[in-house]
Amino acid sequence: MNIKSLLIGSAAALAAVSGAQAADAIIAAEPEPVEYVRVCDAFGTGYFYIPGTETCLKVGGYVRVQLGFGEGTSERSDYDIFARGRLEVTAKNDTEYGTLTSVVRLRGHASENNAGYDDNWTELEEGYIDLAGFRVGKIYSWWDDDLFSEGDYLSNNTLFASARYVFTGEAFSAGLSVDELTWDNGTGAYDDANIGLTGMLSGAFGPVSATLLGSYDFDYEEFAIRGIGSAELGPGTLSVAVAYASGENTYFNAAEWTVAADYAFKVTDKLTIAPFGQYFWDYQLDSRIGDAWTVGLTAEYAVTEGLTALATVNYFDADDNNLNDSVTGFLRLQRDF
């Protein structure tokens, strides 16, 4: 009886152990938790958190197709078609010094009928770091901000390697920028890099806003000043700009004095039209060829969300007999994302 009980107990124990091993063999390991991309609404729409970090990322850009027309548009004909694209990546996160921002903008251009050769290129358009009012990198200067219309001439090259600081108050802002300047010497080659200094003062008072710029080119030892103001007037916005150049410089040298104005008004919710005019005293400072003026019309139409069509036509006339009157313009289709 004892032997039988012992055998039965041993068999039961063996079965229990075997059953436990069989059960353990089919238990699957729990999967690792997956971190899904989260929307970041701290810096506006379009941002999302980089997984595993507190940094918010935004991806955007545009695709543009443009047809330019007018005498001298290219060496082959009086028109030129090109395609251009921009890819922009912005990263932001909060720090003890404020919002840390970094921006990378890559731009590509393709044209098969420009100056008699294929004009295809890709470049770093902008790349900078921004923190506590300081911005360093390759950036557009304040001279790049101009009128709504597309026919005005209020600056030269506006993209520099710069270091700048901006103080922002409730109704005004002030900034100072140190710019590395390079200038085409007329032979297709560029002079050695030099230094420029730009000061900015801007304010907004209800429907009226104004910005004053002053820049000094240490290589040419000349300066340029420009003021732009705008005001909401009736169904649109009236903008006026005045610029002065003491002589040849990198920032603005189209004339000794110039004044420009446009009026951008909404015909419908989708269509905006802006007539403009500009007058130059002592057009082209290097040769003092005389006065000149230009007038034009720009129309922008929002086809649908993210897709815009823009057209402009401009007439130019100069006192100098060596410069022919000209009509130029372009048609543009742009998809922003």
UniProtKB/TrEMBL annotation:
MF (Gene Ontology): porin activity
Protein location: Cell outer membrane
Cellular component, GO annotation: cell outer membrane; pore complex
Chief site of localization: membrane
Signal sequence range: 1-22
Record's function text: Forms passive diffusion pores that allow small molecular weight hydrophilic materials across the outer membrane.
Record family assignment: Belongs to the alphaproteobacteria porin family.
Domain comment quoted from the record: Consists of 16-stranded beta-barrel sheets, with large surface-exposed loops, that form a transmembrane pore at the center of each barrel. The pore is partially ocluded by a peptide loop that folds into the pore lumen.
Name used for this protein in its record: Porin
Record organism: Ectorhizobium quercum
